[in-house]
Specification:
This protein is α+β, with helices and mostly antiparallel strands. It has a single domain, classed as Maf protein (Alpha-Beta Complex). It contains 6 helices and 7 strands. A 5-stranded antiparallel beta sheet has the order 4-3-5-6-7. A two-stranded parallel sheet has the order 1-2. Strand 1, helix 1 and strand 2 form a beta-alpha-beta unit. The radius of gyration is 16 Å and the shape is globular. The model has no long low-confidence stretch (mean pLDDT 93).
């Protein structure tokens, strides 16, 4: 059975990725990776992947997830974590008052080794609620305000298995898994 190294600073993502990539064996290394300030999601991901590869010097995967609000193209995007830390979910909801609430989660996964890098994408369209729907998962705050298209509940109200049916992360890592197993 093939194995893969996943580098992340988010324990919630590590658990989710292990389930998505099963039956692959996933080793997790925790590291706070540099995140360049760029409006380009792919540039930010590639920088993060190269930083992880420099730290661990072995083949690995990293991921980067952004929330994009239709009312504010490119926002919060690569500043998704920064937006939560500064204006919080309440601030994001205030920004959308009187605006269309469409949004998309986009996950990019990068596999990097000595031969180069390959990027995989997963997207989940949906909408932002008008209020926070607890619980607010640690490290996954937007789950408490995001309802995927075709659902009536936020990600935070779904089981992990239910969320995986819609999950942008599951789609991106699913594409990676198919490629990795077949290569």
């Amino acid at each position: 059975m093939k194995s893969v190294l996943f580098v992340t600073g988010n324990k919630g993502k590590a658990e989710e990725v292990r389930k998505i990539l099963a039956p692959l064996s996933v080793t997790v290394e925790e590291a706070e990776l540099d995140e360049i300030k760029s409006l380009s999601h792919e540039a930010a991901l590639k920088s993060k992947a190269l930083h992880a590869y420099a730290l661990f010097k072995k083949p690995l995967v990293v991921e980067d997830t952004c929330l994009f609000l239709n009312a504010f193209p490119e926002f919060p995007g690569t500043y998704s974590k920064f937006a939560i830390r500064t204006i919080g979910l309440d601030g994001v909801l205030r920004l959308l008052e009187g605006k269309k609430r469409g949004a998309s989660f986009v996950t990019l996964v990068a596999f990097v080794n000595e031969g180069g890098m390959r990027v995989f994408k997963g997207e989940c369209p949906g909408e932002i609620t008008k209020k926070i729907i607890p619980p607010v998962p640690e490290g996954l705050a937007y789950d408490a305000v995001f309802i995927p298209k075709g659902e009536k509940r936020t990600f935070s109200k779904m089981t992990k298995e239910e969320k995986a049916r819609f999950s942008h992360r599951a789609k991106a890592f699913g594409c990676f898994r198919k490629w990795y197993v077949d290569s």
